[in-house]
Amino acid sequence: MKHQFSLAHLTALECAPPELIYLAAQAGYDFVSIRPIYMGLPDEPNYDLATNKVMFKETKIALQQTGLNVHDIELARVHADIDPLIYEPAFEVAAELGAKHVLSSIWTDDTELGREKFAQLCDLARPYGLIINLESVPIASVKTLKGAIHVLEDVKRENVGLMIDAHHFHRADDCIDDLKTIPKEWLHYFHLCDAQREIPVKKEEMTRILREERLYIGEGGLPLKDMVTRLPSDIVFSLEMPHKQRTKELGTFEYIKKCLESAKTFVQEKDTRIIKK
């Protein structure tokens, strides 16, 4: 079958959404995943399309000219100090750009508050036809796959999804067999990347690697074959593979092209093994 690939914005965060779209189309991607929600992180560019009307217009033009689609937007963080209502302008942007998904993660250790705010996110997103996909992140409060599953079971909303990141799954020491227990209707896309097999002891080093030193598919030591074979066959592969040094050496276009080539080779080999069986 023909698999579809999205370019996650973190892989080329130096590119504003219009440039990201043109480069992704030229490289052969099917979608882009953009970050129109500004989080104020160190050295993070501000691509708030809800307030930057010029960039928003340029983004729409880029989509029209390339025929690419926006798969998802990010990151609607659940945090004790953040009112979910602030994300509604970004939801409007997502809907107008044709996106169907929003990525979220939970960053408060107050379990009840986290679930309450996540449920509110889902309710805010529903009128825009958006699905809120929860990602477990080992440096956040909901760190594991099981933890994310419990949240979705508790909030009982129809427009929810579970977004699994290969790096985070491995770093959280999640169980491969648990992937079989996830309702298929929750699985819409998957962050495909590779990384060193060894799990960093220090949080700072784990954070550095996940933000700027992920590897080409097949280059590292993550159990990608076991993971992917347990996911729906039509799942979209979103390539979140930031590597600061390689981007500097190769240039953004050549780097994202090599990311896609490594992913397509991996998926093709996976399909070939399944057919032979």
TrEMBL record:
<feature type="domain" description="Xylose isomerase-like TIM barrel">
    <location>
        <begin position="22"/>
        <end position="245"/>
    </location>
</feature>
<dbReference type="GO" id="GO:0016853">
    <property type="term" value="F:isomerase activity"/>
</dbReference>
<keyword id="KW-0413">Isomerase</keyword>
<protein>
    <submittedName>
        <fullName>Xylose isomerase</fullName>
    </submittedName>
</protein>
<dbReference type="InterPro" id="IPR036237">
    <property type="entry name" value="Xyl_isomerase-like_sf"/>
</dbReference>
<dbReference type="Pfam" id="PF01261">
    <property type="entry name" value="AP_endonuc_2"/>
</dbReference>
<dbReference type="InterPro" id="IPR050312">
    <property type="entry name" value="IolE/XylAMocC-like"/>
</dbReference>
<dbReference type="InterPro" id="IPR013022">
    <property type="entry name" value="Xyl_isomerase-like_TIM-brl"/>
</dbReference>
